[in-house]
Amino acid sequence: MLTIGSRRFESRAVQAALSGYSDRPMRLIARRYGAELTMNEVVLDRLVLQKGKLRDEILSLGADDHPTCGQLMGSEPEQFAAAAHELVEAGYDLVDINFGCPVRKVLGRCRGGYLLTEPKKALEIVRGVVGSVAGRRPVLLKMRRGFDDTAESERNFFTILDGALSSGVAAITVHGRTVEQRYVGPARWSFLSRVKRHVGDRTVLGSGDLFTAEAVKRMIEETGVDGVMVARGAIGNPFIFRECRALLSGAPLPPPPGVAEQREAIERHLALAKSVYGASRAAILLRKFWIRYSQLHPCAEEVRQAFLDAKNSVDCAGAIARWYDPNREWPPVVRRDVPADLIASGSSLES
User: Fold this and answer.
1) C-alpha distances out from residue 14 to 147, 228, 268, 274, Å
2) Predicted confidence band of residue 311 (pLDDT cuts 50, 70, 90)
3) Which of 39, 213, 246, 277 would bridge 17 by S-S if both were Cys, CB 3.0 to 4.6 A apart?
């Protein structure tokens, strides 16, 4: 089991925060196929505090959307702490602090991964959030393995890591790339092993290059981390969570989802999106998901192109009807390697 503060989770694979993706529909679909703990997309602290429609959307969680962790990003300790309090009051089950986002405009505003260069300020934020939450929810911290590959950056990482745990943070998530690295090159899993040895029995979650259930199992076995955050690997592939559950419990890897089950997931995802965004907007917003769902289809390239060509909800419905026709005899579904475009596309997604 995965232990985060007072919470216990049977599944050790968590659906990570993904900017522009991990909204309510994605979380509920991930939960249906095996995710137990899900995360909302990262939000700016000031948006949580600023009255209006966006704040209302951030703070609205359905009864069927638990447990969900709210991830915050910002640069001012008092504002960060106040936003954490609001997330707790709104019913989020855990609160996560983002010190990992590598997006340039975020770094330019001294947020996200930039804070790994300022341990003093970073720990002020951590102490403020922990104090504001006041034991009502577990607090997590998301970090990359440093801002860059310098010795100073590594010292800063461990200063923040040790200080956060001493301040009451329940779990640390470590992405195996530096902030400067963004998504270029492989994540350094060996660093995760080092962090886990350093903190002993404190909870560490690993992140980076987790596109299959086999990779999740391998990361846990090779590094000793207590759990993982599945980010880009879950876009258009909620089935990865049931596959993780099977492998981590010692069961065989389930067969890949057939075309009929893929259609069921896509249509359920669409129905959820319509309930949140309305029919016309939902079809367009979900196109980025459907392009990823297409990678599971035995005619992946043709299906992907059909969704790329779709201009409106009618086109999308037509693509689904044609390419997921239950009366057509489809080739067997084959589990694929990770598409190169997915590896290259995530520079602004995973926090």
Assistant:
1) 24, 6, 21, 25
2) confident
3) 39
Task: Report strand pairing: 171-175 vs 68-73.
Answer: unpaired
- What does the DSSP 8-state code read for residue 331? P
Residue 339, pLDDT above cutoff 60 = no
Cβ neighbours of residue 26 closer than 8 Å, sequence gap 6 or more = 15, 18, 234, 238, 269, 289
CA-nearest of 220, 215, 234 to 349 is 234
Q: What are phi and psi of 96, to 5 degrees?
A: -120, 140
The helix/strand/coil state of 64 is: coil
**pTM for this model (two decimals):** 0.92
| φ, ψ for residue 101, nearest 5 deg | -60, 130
What class is the 2-251 domain? Answer: alpha beta
Q: Coil, strand, or helix at residue 20? A: coil
Question: What does the alpha-carbon distance between residue 306 and residue 308 come to, in Å, rounded to a whole number?
Answer: 5
Place of tokens 């999740």: 216
Sign of CA dihedral 88, 91, 93, 95: negative
pLDDT in tens, 31-66: 999 999 999 999 999 999 999 999 999 999 999 999
The mean of the pLDDT values for the chain is: 92
Q: Among 296, 292, 322, which residue's Cα sits nearest to residue 308?
A: 292
Enter the DSSP assignment of 4.
E
Average pLDDT of the residues in 252-267: 95
Tokens 């001012």 found at: 76
Beta-sheet pairing, 7-9 with 38-39:
unpaired
Cα distances (Å, whole numbers) of residue 92 to 63, 99, 210, 241, 318: 11, 19, 25, 21, 38
Q: What is the DSSP letter of 18?
A: B
Nearest alpha carbon to residue 60 among 25, 92, 15: 92
